[in-house]
## 1
Amino acid sequence: MFEHLVIFKFNSSMTKEHEQLLLGKLLAFKQTIPGIIDMSAGLNVTEETDNIHGYSLGLRVTFESQEALRQYGPHPAHQDFVKALDGLLDNVVVVDYPIANA
């Protein structure tokens, strides 16, 4: 299995309404993109305000394999989400790693 973590930092043109729209698009991935075992996404509500650094939306997706993760990128639902980010991002952080068997 592979874990895919993403955190988004939006610029000043982002509205709360558009942020909610993006969150909805992310949450729909599990029903539309094959190979997803589990996922969660949400708006940052941490009380560790010194560590926010402007990042307001997080995504975690567990894929059944690295190949499923590779197929996720070009999937139409993912590409639709990427297009919806156009002109809104200040930064994005992505971490992908294999999940070690415990």
## 2
Amino acid sequence: MKDNKDQLSRFWFVVSNALPPVGLFLYFRHRKAYPNKAKRALKSAIVGVPIAILGACIMNTFVLN
């Protein structure tokens, strides 16, 4: 049987992607007990940073102008 405790849920994956500080928090919270969960949260946070920067540039250039 597969251990579901070491899997990051879809909800937390999306939240850590949209809000990278949440992903970093989840990484530091679960890094010792659940390494797979922590690694996925960290990867999601790292991917979320460029997406947030790109979204901010698009918002600033096209929407707020």
## 3
Amino acid sequence: MRHAVAPTESAGNNSFAVTNLLKICSHCERLSKKDLGIRIPRPLGNGPSSFIPEKEVCGRPDALPPSYLRRTVINLFIYIIQAAARHQCSHLVNLHVNDFLQVGGNPKWLNGLDEAPQKLQELGELNKILAHRPWLLTKEHIEHLLKAEEHSWSLAELIHAVVLLTHYHSLASFTFGCGITPELHCDGGHTFRPPSLSQYCVCDIANGNGHAYHHDDLGDQVSHDLNGEVEVLMERMKQLQECDEEATQEEMATRFEREKTESMLVVTAEDEECVPSRDISRHFEDPSYGYKDFSRGGEHVPTFRVQDYSWEDHGYSLVNRLYPDVGQMLDEKFQIAYNLTYNTMATHKDVDTSMLRRAIWNYIHCMFGIRYDDYDYGEINQLLDRSFKIYIKTMVCSPEKTTKRMYESFWRQFQHSEKVHVNLLLMEARMQAELLYALRAITRYMT
């Protein structure tokens, strides 16, 4: 992972202090810290993730497989910064603020969204709705952008913006879901506290990056709770595969509505207001606007039926027509994430995990009001327990509230690599859900 070559306003005075201190240290090796009379910052924790022990990380968790990265669409940094800021993802914001400056971006644009060109400011409403309540997007929102007089967007430009916004909303989910730590020069990436006697700070021990941490220390109760967890899940998968009972279309629709309603009752364990810092909130408008379930405030959101508008039959071709080759890239990216598997479940090998992956993907789309007519939503409650649902909803809808406790509470016997696969699946399912609403609105405007 790259480090910034220049301090930015988002890092604040601490960034300048850290940079200058490191320069002083490198050129004054003969002087001790005491002689200099200054405090030297050190990393807040070891390793790139605060969730995953450093010894189990081959590379940074956000360093995805090459085949995955080749299909990632990256272009205009100002879109990216707006999108990442919506979820208070300082890691991505700081990273791309530095990229923006390196390629000659106007620093004034970073003082606040109102300092950016009017055409880019016009994206604020679209960015807000897509990130938090995409089901509210209408063809009128699209018309406003395409007919904004001298600040209007073309259809091709708008598709480009939508792809970038949705990608970075979902990438923020992945970043928080993997507990990716800020870079050393950023706020939250360093500390001035002295190390403990064992040379490991509290963060390292909690993260499993210190020799003082062992699973055995968690006690017998945890071991008891873990016993048979995977076997129970595998047995449920087997029973569902062997079940010959076929539900009627009416029953299938009822099960979807029931699951959608139940998803609204899943409340994150850390359901409290997260107030963004000024460094982050200046990059987007209306900081108080966030995720809200369909039924809040008396809203009634009709079901989005995939048989009426799907990625495969509608969205893919629209993107490819207006943004050549990108439809194919996105389709391959979705397929890679959906089919990604080790064919393992914890210590069990040669396991067909397709049923489980489909349940996860469809549950996320269900939370966005999207229904697959050929899927039995009764399977979701059989395969996804409440702690997993809490993690999924938090990471997908309010990723900035994701905690280490949530990450550890689901699939406790599974490998961290398997959980990272889950995070990729959640990331792409979320992106496709946002895209479906945006592309359907564009299609309705065009017709």
## 4
Amino acid sequence: MDNRSTAGGTAGGTASGTPGGAAPPAPPPPSPPTRGAFVFNAADEERRRGVRRMKAIATGLLLLVALVYVLAKYAQHAWGAGGWAGYVAAAAEAGMVGALADWFAVTALFKRPLGLPIPHTAIIPTKKDQLGVTLGEFVGENFLSSDVVRARLHSLGIGGRLGAWLAEPAHADRVTAELATALRGALTVLRDSDVQAVVGEAITRRAETAEIAPGIGKTLQKVVADGGHRRGVDLICAKAHDWLVTHGDSITDAVQGGAPGWTPRFVDRKVGERVYKELLRFVTEMRDMPEHPARAAVDRFLRDFAADLQSDTATRAKVERLKSEILARDEVQDVIASAWAAIRSMIISAAEDEQSELRLRVRASLMSLGARLATDGRLQAKVEGWIEGAVVYVVTTYRREITSLITDTVAAWDAEHTSRKIEAHIGRDLQFIRINGTVVGALAGLLIYTVSRAFGA
């Protein structure tokens, strides 16, 4: 059925011969995947125009020598020209042969000459995939070998160059900014819940496995020996005195409430007032007298407690149990988990602030490293060894993947577009081959003809 009957059946509903109109046409089959093709940009089009100009020149030169050959032969036979016509004809004939031979060779690279199925022509379209494999193997063997890579990197003197580059303040600022950006990006990508879980588990596990009592004991012993605890005792005494002054009635009421029921109330009150006054006097004297006996008693208690924390098994066990109980509380776990949020916020703020201590220290460290790396030969050798080892490892481990990038890319190219692209880049030079072939052929033909005439051939 032709297009018109199909269209009529669709419109009228009866022309197709099926009641109610023709069935809708079947969807077209999916097109096979196309191979990758080059995009010809303005530069490529300019190159192709140059190739066409050179083709015209080479072809024109071929036509010129052909015309010279015809004229020389005509002059030789029709006009009875002298020996010079034979020399010209021989040169022109050899020039035609050279031009045609080079035209065939150049054309055979990209297509079949005159469309004829001549073997070993259209080399690039038909051998494209094989050329890609060969190119990949060539690159892998000659450019990606460990010896070549290591020798090339060693000749570059990367250590000294890197040091001199980092020593420049502008370059150090740039690296610092890039590191800050990378740090912010990494902290943004990380999920807070995952990091909090890891940090919480790490802190808890570390705290549970490490015994803290001996460390606390040594610290407390040093603090007491240096008199560092006295400020704390002064503060406690001052606060206790202020509290007693403010809550004297509470002390009196507490003493009265604990008295026997058979004692008179005025006696209970007198006793309460007396207790309050003695307690206030004691705290006041302890606050104002650095050599008070109670302070000496506190010093002895702290020294003994510090010794027990280091050597007494029972005391150390009690501290460890207390530590475990504190760590197990939900409030403590929440504080540990929330520490990540505070640290993350602090790091991001420092990374964003160009004048932050973090960025200033990183910048100074980079410049110091650069200055040292630029002058220290041993450090240069060490850094270059690290870089060479890392690059050689990547190259030797992933050589097949690197070369497969070449072979797979070439295999994905469209054959026709590949030929056109390559011809656009090297076609002008190939046309010069045709021109050179014409000239060299003419000179060779002239030389052969001259030698032959000289030997009487």
